[in-house]
Amino acid sequence: MTEPDRIPAADLPPGAVHRVGDWAVGNRVGRYFAVSRRCRHQLADLSEGTVDADGCLVCPWHQSRYDVRTGEMVEGPHGFLGYHGPTPGYTQFVRAYARILRLRVRRALRRGDDVVLE
Ligand code: FES
Questions:
Q1: What's the pLDDT tens digit per position in 6-28?
Q2: How much distance in Å is there from the Cα of 51 to the middle of ligand 1?
Q3: Which cofactor does it need (predicted)?
Q4: Ligand 1 neighbour 91 (Cβ under 6 A)
């Protein structure tokens, strides 16, 4: 079975994020992006995340933030498992290993009525 590699552009207004196969595809202030879907912290599905005011992809579980242009985690998690709150040392530790284990990045371009992953 081949992986779907496109989504209707109408489904991706600014700020939206959707799942396209193994990818979280979104619209960052008018620019489309595609990154691998699993958060480097505890594997939350980033296609259920949000785009913040800085254009970063925010994990739905503990709010780690990712630069979708590079796949780098730019802010670590605020919690773990079911806990949501400050974890200063742990947050820095996760961010340190996530620098090495960046999200994969794929180009996402508008082609006609669709956004296509290259
Ligand atoms: S699973 Fe993404 S921040 Fe915890």
A1: 999 999 999 999 999 999 999 99
A2: 15
A3: [2Fe-2S] cluster
A4: no
**In what side-by-side order are the strands of the sheet with 57-58?**
50-51, 57-58, 65-67, 72-75
Residues 16, 52: Cα–Cα separation, whole Å: 10
Per residue in 74-106, pLDDT (tens digit) is 999 999 999 999 888 999 999 998 888 999 999
**Residue to mutate, 38, 59, 101, ligand 1, most ligand atoms under 8 Å from C-beta:** 59
Mean pLDDT over the full length of the chain: 94
CA of 113 to the centre of ligand 1 (A): 33
- Nearest Cα neighbor of 118 from 23, 13, 47, 28 is 23
Query: In the prediction, which pLDDT does 66 show?
Result: 97
CATH numbers and ranges of domains, the chain: 7-104 (2.102.10.10)
| CA dihedral over 2, 72, 112, 52, signed as positive or negative | positive
Q: 90 — phi, psi (to 5°)?
A: -65, -45
